Each structure stands twice: as structure tokens, then as C-alpha cells.
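In response to the reviewer comment on reproducibility (Comment 2.3), we provide here a single inverse folding case reported in full, input and output, so that an independent group could reproduce the run without further information from us. The C-alpha cells appear first.
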């Protein structure tokens, strides 16, 4: 028996350098490590530093700080490794988004190649590579180092399916063509009954398909067609036809929702910004009386939009917590709230620059979530049975809105026609927080929440799929080991 055939599964995890991707990657790492996997978790130096700083560590400690020490104390073998992404840690990646992601697309793979080349020489050497689907090099680098190639999709299967079938959208005049047909219903994507062009991810709706993210998606979805396994942070029962259609092409496992085991009390911190503790404020408010407002970690919005929402919240008279990142308009625009707003709302509203979202939405005082429709936010909020007011801004958020409002009926739109207005904001907020019809939505929420809960319970679809996924990895590793040994022997004989 060769030594290698006894090897434990050891996976390299490459998280995409954005908050919404780091969170499910860390939760996946914990899940796999809890099942006996060795994990080497690779963050960019910049993400590593930002998370370390956000945890209010002494700046001097940041460099050598191990993000996974909490998990290691629980007996999990998760190793913390960083990688250079092409820029110094203090480069403003939010302000220079396109420059940054151009480099991630074109050059980051070289750094990955170099790092993986070193890691395969370590002991125990890795045998699996799990990379975010947005990376354009995952299958190629896996092949070079004889690693099982796994692609992790952190968004719904519907969005995956749209990107997977860009060629169909092109052929039918819905992407990358002059005679764009914005009014049709799209009904030719396998497994997708019907979707409006306005519900496609923002990049697909855009006329300028030469933008960096468009080119990146194009390449990433060529690359993913070579993946041995695709795992997806969704639930089979929520998107059954879409997942079934994708499985015709490649093994796709729905293993979501991949949440932190403690939900709130995490052993590993993932926040890129310092969190304000909202507990005392929430404790002092009646049950279901607070609207939680957050536009997530990535998208920006205009000062005018913030003003309309600010006035709408004012007029609605509900309590609210509003997360406004310092760069919500731009890193260069610090004064985005109407003058004197915070004095005006007094103790009815709490404005913070970041918070522990799971702690807030699981608090009984919270009654609804005005959200940008990021996928983590949606999964977390369903988990807490908190319904949505949807305000998509960018990327998959438009498509996620469709799932929430049109398909699952657990949320409403912030505005239905034309431009956002303070009156409509107030009206929608009052409707969801106080309206009788909101009762019906609560019933539907119960149903969807149960589907999530059932999926991750013993014998639930996600739990069963996760086990199958891990078994699959183990048997693929063994096959590769046998092949490697045979190859060695035949080389030996040839000599
Ligand atoms: C990833 O693995 C699959 C299955 O073994 C293989 O067909 C594919 O070629 C691999 N991808 C690359 C780029 O090597
Ligand atoms: C796309 O181009 C068409 C025709 O030039 C124009 O009418 C439309 O407003 C553009 N859409 C966007 C989102 O820029
Ligand atoms: C989280 O941890 C804190 C401190 O250890 C504890 O007081 C609190 O009860 C925990 N909360 C949950 C929901 O487990
Ligand atoms: C799970 O499924 C197995 C095999 O079908 C069965 O023996 C077991 O009782 C089930 N467990 C639960 C908790 O349903
Ligand atoms: C995941 O679980 C569902 C429900 O049990 C099943 O239909 C599906 O085939 C599983 N997926 C894979 C890839 O085995």
C-alpha cells in the first residue's frame, strides 16, 4: 500500500475577495473540517488584514494573526494562508473596482499557480481545490497539480444557470447584441420556466458587455464547464427544475444554506468592518417593531436615493436600524445623509456603519428587512423568518428579487414603477410592518423557512448531498492516488 492511499482529504479553499463570498467559504470550511477534512483556507492579504483589523486587534498583531484560531481550538484543522492579489493592502479596491478586478481576472492566477505549486509540496499535501466559480483558473490549476477540481457557487442556481447559458441569451437577442429585445420573456434556458430580461443579473442587462465583470463571467463560465463537481449554496427544493437541468451536464450538489454552526456566535470572524453591537438598542424595542435596512457590502447607491429612503423611513414612523457603509456612495463621499437627519430621528432609528447581521435579524424586535437582495442576506433572513422589502442594486440581486417576490412570495418591492420616491418608501414600509396582508406573507415564509430547515436536518436534501459530495471527493482522491502510483511504477519499469 502506498502511503498516499491513506491520505486524508485536504482541500485548498480559494474564496473570492468580497465579503459576500468570504462568508459562505468560511462556513463551508468549517463544515468540511467538522467532517474530518484538512482545510487550507486562502484569503488575499487584503481581505485577511481587513478582517483582522475589523476584529479590533492590535494593528501590530494583524500580520501574523490566525483567523481560524477559534476553529482550531474546537479541534478543526483549518490552516490560514494568505496570497498577494497584485496590490498593496491599503489600495482602495472599492474606489478602483474595475482596475482591481481586471488584475484579479488576468494576473491573480499566476500568484495562485505559484502558491499551489508550493502547497503541494507540503505535508500532508492537498488533493482537492475548491475555488469560487468567479475565478477563471480553477480547473486549469487543478489539472496542473492533479487536484480534484471543485467549483463553489455562492449564489442561487437560477443565476448560475443564466450565466451558464450566455450563448443561448446571445442567440436569442438578450445579451451582447445590437437588436436587444428587452420586452420578451425568456423561456429557453433549460430548467428556467420564464424570466423577464429586467430580472437578469445587472451585467447581463447592460449594453456594455465589454465591462470587466462581463468578460470575467464569460471566462469563468467557460472554465466551470471543466469542473468535476459544482457545489451550490442553495436548496434542492427551492430550485428543483433548474438544478435538475444543470445536472444533465455536470454533477451539481445543492448543499445550502451553508450557515455558521452557531449562526450568531461564530468561532471564526468574517466581517470586513467593525461591527456595532445593536443588542441593547433592540432589547429596548417591542417585538417585530424594527425594520432592518442594509444594502450589503459591495454595491453603491446615490446620495439622492439615500435621501429618499431617509425621508421615507422618517414618514413611516417605524423603528429602524440602518447600515450605511462609509463607502456606500463612494470612498470619496463622506456626507451622504440629509443634514441633521440623525438629530431628527432621535431614538427611533439607529444608524451604524456595519453590524453583525445575523445577531440583528434573529432578534425578536426585528419585523422586516429592507434589503439589496444579496444571497447571504436572503438565506439568513429566511432562516429567521423575517420578510423582505426588496431594493436590488447590482449583479445577482435583481434575479434574487424575482425569487423572493415573484416565486416565493416572501417579500415586496420597494418601488414598483419608475423612480424611487419617499412616499412609496413610507407606504411600502408601513404595509409590510403593519399591514394585514403581511400575515399571508408570514404563512408563506413559514413554508420556505421549513424547506431550509428540513434540507439541513438529518436525511434532508442538503445534508444528504453534502455527504455524497464528501464521499465523491474521497473516492476521486483514491482513484487519483492509484493512478499516480501506477504511473510511478510504470516510469520505474521504463527506466
Ligand atoms: C477537472 O476534472 C474533470 C474530471 O476529472 C476533467 O474532465 C477536467 O478535465 C478537469 N479539468 C481540467 C481543466 O483539467
Ligand atoms: C441600451 O441601448 C439602447 C439602444 O441604444 C438604449 O435605448 C438603452 O437605454 C440602453 N440601455 C441601457 C441599460 O443603457
Ligand atoms: C453567544 O455567546 C455569548 C458569550 O459567550 C453568550 O452569552 C450568548 O448566550 C451566546 N448566544 C447564543 C445565541 O448562543
Ligand atoms: C435517516 O435515514 C436512514 C436511512 O434511510 C434511516 O435509517 C434513519 O432512521 C433516518 N433518520 C432520521 C432521523 O430520519
Ligand atoms: C441532492 O438531493 C436531492 C434530494 O434528495 C436529490 O434529488 C439530488 O439528486 C441530490 N443531488 C445529487 C447531486 O446527488
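Designed residues, in position order:
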Amino acid at each position: 500500500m502506498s502511503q498516499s492511499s491513506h491520505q486524508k482529504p485536504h482541500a485548498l479553499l480559494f474564496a473570492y475577495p468580497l465579503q459576500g463570498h468570504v462568508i459562505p467559504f468560511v462556513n463551508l470550511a468549517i463544515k468540511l473540517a467538522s467532517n474530518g477534512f484538512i482545510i487550507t483556507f486562502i484569503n488575499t492579504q487584503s481581505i485577511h488584514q481587513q478582517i483582522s483589523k475589523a476584529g479590533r486587534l492590535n494593528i501590530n498583531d494583524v500580520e501574523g494573526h490566525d483567523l481560524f484560531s477559534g476553529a482550531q481550538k474546537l479541534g478543526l484543522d483549518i490552516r490560514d494562508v494568505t496570497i498577494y492579489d497584485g496590490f498593496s493592502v491599503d489600495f482602495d479596491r472599492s474606489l478602483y473596482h474595475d482596475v482591481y478586478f481586471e488584475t484579479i481576472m488576468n494576473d491573480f492566477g499566476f500568484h495562485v499557480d505559484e502558491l499551489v505549486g508550493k502547497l503541494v509540496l507540503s505535508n500532508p499535501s492537498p488533493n482537492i481545490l475548491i475555488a469560487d466559480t468567479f475565478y477563471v483558473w480553477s480547473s486549469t490549476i487543478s489539472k496542473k497539480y492533479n487536484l480534484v477540481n471543485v467549483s463553489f457557487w455562492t449564489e442561487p442556481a437560477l443565476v448560475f444557470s443564466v450565466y451558464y447559458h450566455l450563448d443561448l441569451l446571445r442567440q436569442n437577442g438578450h445579451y451582447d447584441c445590437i437588436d436587444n429585445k428587452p420586452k420578451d420573456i425568456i423561456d429557453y434556458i433549460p430548467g428556467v420556466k420564464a424570466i423577464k430580461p429586467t430580472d437578469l443579473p445587472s451585467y447581463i442587462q447592460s449594453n456594455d458587455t465589454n465591462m470587466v465583470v462581463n468578460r470575467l463571467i464569460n471566462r469563468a463560465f467557460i472554465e466551470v464547464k471543466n469542473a468535476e463537481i459544482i457545489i451550490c449554496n442553495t436548496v434542492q427544493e427551492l430550485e428543483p427544475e433548474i438544478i435538475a437541468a444543470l445536472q444533465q451536464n455536470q454533477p451539481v450538489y445543492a448543499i445550502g444554506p451553508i450557515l455558521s454552526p452557531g449562526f450568531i456566535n461564530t468561532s471564526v470572524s468574517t466581517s470586513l468592518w467593525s461591527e456595532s453591537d445593536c443588542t441593547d438598542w433592540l432589547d429596548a424595542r417591542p417585538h417585530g417593531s424594527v425594520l432592518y435596512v442594509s444594502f450589503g457590502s459591495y454595491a453603491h447607491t446615490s446620495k439622492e436615493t439615500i435621501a429618499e429612503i431617509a425621508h421615507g423611513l422618517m414618514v413611516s414612523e417605524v423603528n429602524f436600524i440602518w447600515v450605511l457603509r462609509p463607502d456606500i456612495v463612494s470612498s470619496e463621499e463622506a456626507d451622504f445623509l440629509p443634514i441633521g437627519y440623525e438629530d431628527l430621528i432621535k431614538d427611533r432609528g439607529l444608524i451604524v456603519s456595519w453590524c453583525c447581521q445575523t445577531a440583528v435579524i434573529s432578534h425578536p424586535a426585528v419585523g422586516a428587512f429592507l434589503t439589496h437582495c444579496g444571497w447571504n442576506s436572503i438565506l439568513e433572513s429566511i432562516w429567521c423568518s423575517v420578510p423582505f422589502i426588496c431594493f436590488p442594486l447590482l449583479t445577482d440581486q435583481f434575479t434574487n428579487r424575482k425569487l423572493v417576490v415573484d416565486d416565493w412570495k416572501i417579500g415586496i418591492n420597494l418601488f414598483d414603477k419608475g423612480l424611487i420616491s419617499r412616499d412609496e418608501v413610507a407606504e411600502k414600509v408601513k404595509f409590510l410592518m403593519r399591514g394585514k396582508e403581511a400575515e399571508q406573507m408570514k404563512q408563506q415564509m413559514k413554508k420556505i423557512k421549513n424547506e431550509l430547515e428540513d434540507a439541513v436536518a438529518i436525511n434532508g436534501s442538503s445534508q444528504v448531498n453534502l455527504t455524497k459530495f464528501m464521499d465523491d471527493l474521497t473516492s476521486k482522491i483514491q482513484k487519483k492516488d492509484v493512478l499516480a502510483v501506477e504511473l510511478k511504477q510504470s516510469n520505474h519499469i521504463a527506466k
